[in-house]
């Protein structure tokens, strides 16, 4: 069953942790000045203030230019300019979803700057890096991934056009395509295949996007030239193309294959995507968080114990694999991809954003006594800094999907609302997350206020409203972590289906409360079954420890090792645990709530009697 994403302005978040993090992200987007975002573009075009970065002896931060951007955005850095494209993409989606007028004005101002740079550069070249970088690349000389940096600007422009209908952004991207096309045409195919071995970012995807937007055959030509034979043919032949290879070099290329399939309908592109997923996830496995990679490379299949370190789970990989799962879910209607997305949202996207500052952790360390290393607002600008700002503008787009049969799917249990246009009339749908509230099953004596202890179920309320006689079928995902059967209140219109509940809304108003029961689980690392992580629902728990720690007990029984701790404040159930039966007590909290505390996710378990 094919499903389609709703338009960005059709869905809004309604409170909760994902909306909180979105708001934090919006504040950060607005905090960055146009001058700083454009600094390297102006420098390359030879316009604007050229001296601000040459004043290290000034007394104040402002006079030294420290309000400008440093790290990977330092003038002279080889990937300078990459972040602006991420900013444009994130700002465009935020505006499309919320109608944010201030960010819309900021986008226009940044486009003014880029347009000026393109004009000063002769009408084509728009980037913050020089054309000489492409020449070095073609000559096989050392240069760090110029196409990666160039793609980000093109991506940002394309996203501004797609999300906001901005024709100027599209024209800037089309103009910028010409020097790339001329460069590509000057290189024979075999030599260009060698060039494709150097990280290209999402160039393939942006050519597919521009083909869809314009129908211009030059983008069909570029799609053909950017077909990465060694990777794609290896995947189609079933060879392991990933073990010990840099992960985020290839995921964007495969996202390009996914977009090329959607635009052209060529099944070969789809085969590449499906085989990549098989190799990256099905035949490789993941850490307890749902993420992968160590030191930015793919681990060997199901061999994780020796790869836990300070540089596991790169944020870019988490974000881009969520995008890949989203594409496969839309093509197939298979909600197991939504389970994958959910794990990575909580234990990657949320876990790698500082809930106080909004900054990113490049990696999520999985070694014992780990600490998250947070980026800063203006002094780092890692690649993951860019995917962070995009990720937190896209939560609402992961909730609702419309099937080709007219059925609406609720893929993520995130508080949100939408309106669906049907042949009979509009239907409003709202999802409210009621949290770890009272279990509403037939054997429950619980009311939210009457529970003596923290309930073992999460509850969502689905409300469907329309005029009389305007129906809608709403499919609600039943997560893979649910224990037993979901419990329903107001279930007269609910049907049970594989992996889902289907609400058959007949018209007027339908309201259903669904409780999804969970149990604390001990999830072993695949190649070391007595080393486990503790997981509640989709959420991985972090033990607050400042050293490597093992526990004593039964590795298959999480309930015998941990018990709820600090479970209630005012009207809210908390998700903390503490160890029991151990020489000293360890407290556990969701990993996405950890800020600066040292922690461990995996614990060796010494079986009783050993």
From TrEMBL:
Residues 12-396 form the Non-reducing end beta-L-arabinofuranosidase-like GH127 catalytic domain. It comes from the Bacteria. GO terms for biological process: carbohydrate metabolic process. It holds the Pfam family Beta-AFase-like_GH127_cat. InterPro entries: 6-hairpin_glycosidase_sf, Beta-AFase-like_GH127_cat. This is Non-reducing end beta-L-arabinofuranosidase-like GH127 catalytic domain-containing protein.
């Amino acid at each position: 069953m094919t499903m389609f994403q709703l338009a960005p302005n059709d869905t809004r978040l309604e409170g909760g942790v994902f909306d909180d993090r979105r708001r934090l992200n919006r504040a950060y987007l607005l905090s960055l000045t146009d001058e700083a975002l454009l600094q390297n573009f102006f420098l390359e075009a030879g316009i604007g203030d050229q001296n601000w970065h040459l004043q290290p002896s000034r007394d104040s931060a402002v006079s030294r230019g420290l309000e400008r951007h440093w790290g990977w955005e330092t003038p002279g850095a080889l990937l300078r300019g990459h972040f602006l494209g991420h900013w444009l993409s994130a700002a465009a989606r935020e505006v499309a979803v919320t109608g944010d007028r201030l960010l819309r004005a900021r986008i226009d101002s940044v486009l003014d700057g880029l347009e000026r740079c393109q004009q000063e550069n002769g009408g084509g070249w728009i980037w913050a890096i020089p054309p000489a970088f492409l020449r070095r690349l073609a000559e096989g000389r050392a240069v760090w991934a110029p196409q990666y940096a160039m793609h980000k600007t093109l991506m940002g422009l394309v996203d501004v056009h797609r999300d906001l209908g901005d024709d100027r952004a599209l024209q800037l991207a089309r103009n910028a395509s010409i020097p790339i096309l001329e460069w590509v045409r000057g290189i024979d195919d075999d030599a260009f295949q060698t060039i494709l071995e150097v990280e290209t970012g999402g160039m393939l995807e942006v050519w597919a996007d521009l083909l869809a937007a314009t129908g211009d055959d030059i983008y069909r030509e570029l799609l053909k030239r950017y077909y990465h034979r060694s990777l794609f043919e290896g995947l189609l032949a079933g060879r392991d193309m990933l073990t010990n290879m840099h992960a985020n070099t290839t995921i964007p290329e495969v996202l390009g294959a996914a977009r090329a399939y959607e635009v052209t309908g060529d099944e070969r592109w789809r085969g590449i995507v499906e085989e990549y997923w098989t190799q990256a996830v099905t035949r490789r496995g993941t850490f307890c968080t749902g993420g992968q990679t160590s030191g930015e490379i793919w681990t060997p299949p199901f061999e994780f114990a020796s790869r836990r370190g300070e540089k596991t789970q790169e944020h870019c990989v988490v974000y881009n694999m969520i995008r890949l799962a989203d594409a496969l879910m839309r093509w197939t209607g298979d909600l197991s991809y939504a389970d994958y997305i959910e794990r990575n949202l909580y234990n990657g996207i949320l876990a790698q954003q500082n809930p106080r500052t909004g900054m990113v952790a490049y990696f999520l360390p999985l070694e014992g006594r780990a600490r998250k290393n947070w980026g800063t607002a203006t002094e780092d600008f890692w690649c993951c800094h860019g995917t962070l700002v995009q990720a937190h503008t896209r939560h609402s787009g992961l909730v609702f999907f419309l099937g080709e049969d007219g059925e609406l799917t609720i893929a993520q249990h995130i508080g949100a609302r939408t309106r669906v246009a049907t042949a009979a009339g509009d239907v409003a749908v709202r999802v409210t997350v009621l949290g770890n509230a009272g279990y509403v099953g037939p054997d429950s004596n619980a009311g939210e206020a009457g529970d003596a202890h923290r309930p073992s179920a999460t509850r969502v309320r689905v409300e469907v409203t329309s005029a009389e006689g305007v129906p809608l079928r709403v499919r609600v995902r039943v997560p893979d972590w649910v224990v037993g059967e979901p419990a329903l209140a107001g279930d007269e219109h609910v049907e049970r289906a594989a992996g889902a509940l289907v609400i058959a809304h007949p018209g007027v108003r339908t309201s259903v409360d669904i409780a999804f029961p969970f149990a604390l689980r001990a999830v072993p690392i695949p190649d070391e079954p007595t080393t486990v992580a503790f997981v509640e629902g989709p959420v991985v728990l972090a033990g607050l420890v400042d050293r490597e720690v093992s526990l004593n007990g039964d590795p298959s029984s999480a309930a015998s090792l941990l018990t709820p701790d600090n479970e209630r404040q005012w009207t809210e159930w908390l998700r903390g645990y503490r160890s029991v039966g151990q020489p000293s007590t360890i407290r556990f909290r969701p990993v996405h709530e950890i800020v600066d505390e040292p922690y461990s996710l995996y614990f060796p378990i010494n079986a009783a009697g050993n």
